[in-house]
Design a protein that fits this description.
The complex is a heterodimer of chains A (308) and B (297). With 308 residues, chain A is mainly α. Chain A is 78% helix and 0% strand. At the A-B interface, α1, α6, α7, α8 and α10 of A face α6, α7, α11, α12 and α13 of B.
Chain lengths: 308, 297
């Protein structure tokens, strides 16, 4: 286990290093000088320009800028926004992250609670009407773009029925439609996986043995089939949790929610270097850490992985 | 060496294809997918012949006007014919879906094969590269790249293609690792075949099945990505008609002209559905041992 842990940690840190280089160089390819953008139409002398450059460190060699940036990021100092001066990037990100996290965690727990039982029942009653309905639902759920589902919900519940606010977060009701859209998508995916995994489990020899020794069907399914069938689904859930924070950019845009996705799009459009860089980096590191954690948990609950 | 060529019975290949087609035909939804895609391709090739009006002509005084007999889907927010724009939109969706997938497949298969066949340090380095690429949340990466490079059709195709190859590389690498050790590879080597010949004649043909399945299942996801980018204003730029861009207009005017948001969304959904069903059918036909893995990221 220790060796497995060490090797995964090693790989993870190499990936984070590469991610930081990737993010940094991507941002430095953006056409347009950030200082020009800051100054805008204002009349400034060359001297003043140089002073601003110096203050923000744009006059130093690229590799030096990179090391300063990495060192600051590691200390949790994401710098100041160049465009919206005076606001620390960290504050902007943490404020927006609260909205995004609420949205996603809520949607995630709801979809797990719905999807796993759905998948298991569909698998146990394979070829039944219920199974058929689940498969149709999940096929559609994977094909319909979630932002379009969102638009249609707005038409139905805000425009026609007038029950829910179409945009923003005037009250908790603002969360209802975005959460519903994410739940629909997640449930489609997870129910399908759980079903496939359970069907595979039902065919195993140890399940036949369990039946042969006279256990009731309920116990066979809950103790022998589902426990093993959960393994691959747990991995997918783990991998996706990390992706969730970023997966809702478009949804936040549809419903005009002040989350990370909105902040990101806004910063991209305003060429706000520091913010974009920080968001991309933070999200990627979250993905790496999430995957690492999932691998470790998986290695712990399924010994075949770490030994094999 | 030359004589070995003649040992391969030529008709066998055709019967392999026929058998795959028979298996594919049994899956009705897959056939539906195929038919829909064929119709879509025709639409994308000759949109000017099929659409009743110009897709960029602005009908004066018809902003957001409701459907009528000569304009069955109504007008958009500046008075263009929705039906014609929806038909023209198929072009962008297919171009991006097919070309970007093509780029991803070529890059992914090459890197995966090199990684699996060469092993050692090359494999370790390439595997970290794949991990890194997979660590960037796709849409975040695409939005940043599109903003950096300037959004356009070409940009969208290239960035989706160049960032999407990691999954192909993973699958191909794993398959090549096992195929490398097979008896027939050993036999080929014993007969004096070089690396290139072994890779291209003995290993790659055997990984193409899973790759084709993965690609057809991936096209739907790419079409959704493209429309998401256009929806955010970072994809194909107006006045070119793209379904995602039309949905973006639909969102802006959702409380005044809700009908703008309907047709493009229906088309995206049907197209993605068609490619997913085709992929399911192909999986049954080409790669029976593969399980139902959803490749959505």
């Amino acid at each position: 286990m220790l060796r497995y842990l060490a090797s995964r940690l090693m790989q993870g840190s190499v990936v984070i290093l590469l991610v930081s280089i990737g993010t940094f160089s991507m941002m430095h390819l953006i056409p347009g000088d950030p200082v020009d953008l800051m100054v805008g139409e204002a009349q400034v002398t060359q001297e003043q320009l140089d002073m601003i450059r110096k203050k923000w460190g744009f006059d130093r060699p690229v590799h030096e800028q990179y090391f300063t940036w990495v060192a600051n990021m590691a200390r949790g100092d994401f710098g100041q926004s160049v465009v919206r001066t005076g606001v620390p990037v960290r504050n902007m990100i943490s404020e927006a992250a609260v909205v995004t996290a609420k949205l996603n965690l809520l949607a995630f727990f709801i979809s797990i609670a719905i999807a796993l039982p759905m998948g298991i029942v569909a698998a146990v009653r394979r070829y039944s009407g219920f199974d058929y309905a689940i498969m149709v639902f999940s096929t559609l759920g994977l094909a319909l773009p979630n932002f379009w589902i969102g638009l249609m919900l707005i038409v139905l519940f805000s425009l026609l029925l007038g029950w829910l606010p179409p945009f923003g977060l005037p009250s908790w009701q603002g969360y209802v439609m975005p959460v519903a859209v994410i739940v629909a998508n997640q449930t489609a995916l997870l129910a399908r996986m759980m079903r496939a995994s359970t069907i595979e489990g039902i065919g195993e020899d140890y399940v036949r043995t369990a039946r042969a020794k006279g256990l009731t069907e309920g116990i066979v399914v809950s103790r022998h089939v589902v426990r093993n069938a959960l393994l691959p689904v747990v991995t997918v859930i783990g991998y996706r949790i990390a992706f969730l924070l970023s997966g809702t950019i478009v949804i936040e845009n549809v419903f005009a929610l002040p989350g990370l996705g909105q902040l990101f799009i806004e910063s991209v459009n305003r060429v706000d270097y520091q913010v974009v860089q920080a968001i991309v980096f933070v999200l990627s590191v979250l993905v790496v850490l999430g995957n690492l954690l999932t691998d470790l948990v998986y290695g712990y609950i399924d010994p075949r992985i770490r030994i094999g | 060496m030359i004589q070995r060529e003649t040992v391969i019975p030529v008709p066998y290949r055709r019967s392999e294809f026929t058998r795959a087609w028979r298996r594919f035909r049994r899956y009705r939804p897959g056939l539906f997918g195929l038919c829909f895609i064929v119709a879509l391709v025709i639409m994308a090739v000759i949109p000017d012949l099929l659409s009743p009006h110009s897709h960029i002509y602005i009908f004066r005084g018809m902003r957001g006007a409701p459907p009528s007999w000569s304009h069955p889907l109504g007008f958009d927010h500046i008075g263009r014919d929705m039906l014609s724009r929806t038909i023209w939109g198929s072009r962008v969706a297919l171009i991006v879906g097919l070309l970007a997938t093509g780029i991803s497949v070529v890059v992914g298969v090459t890197i995966g094969a090199a990684s699996g066949y060469l092993g050692g340090r090359v494999d370790a380095a390439l595997s970290r590269l794949v991990d890194t690429l997979m660590a960037f949340p796709v849409l975040v990466l695409l939005i940043t790249l599109s903003a950096v490079l300037g959004p356009s059709l070409v940009t969208v195709v290239v960035i989706i293609g160049v960032t999407g190859w990691a999954q192909y590389a993973r699958v191909v690498r794993a398959d090549v690792l096992s195929l490398r050790e097979r008896e027939y590879t050993l036999a080929a080597r014993a007969a004096g075949a070089g690396d290139a010949r072994i890779i291209f004649r003995h290993i790659l043909p055997n990984v193409m099945g899973p790759v084709i399945v993965l690609a057809s299942l991936g096209i739907g996801g790419i079409i959704i990505l493209e429309s998401a980018l256009s929806f955010l204003g970072l994809g194909v730029q107006p006045p070119t008609a793209s379904w995602g861009g039309m949905l973006s207009d639909g969102r802006a005017f959702i409380l005044i002209y809700p009908q703008i948001a309907i047709a493009p969304g229906v088309m995206i959904s049907l197209t993605v559905l068609a490619f997913n069903l085709l992929g399911d059918g192909l999986r049954d036909a080409l790669d029976p041992r593969q399980k139902d893995v959803s490749l959505d990221r």
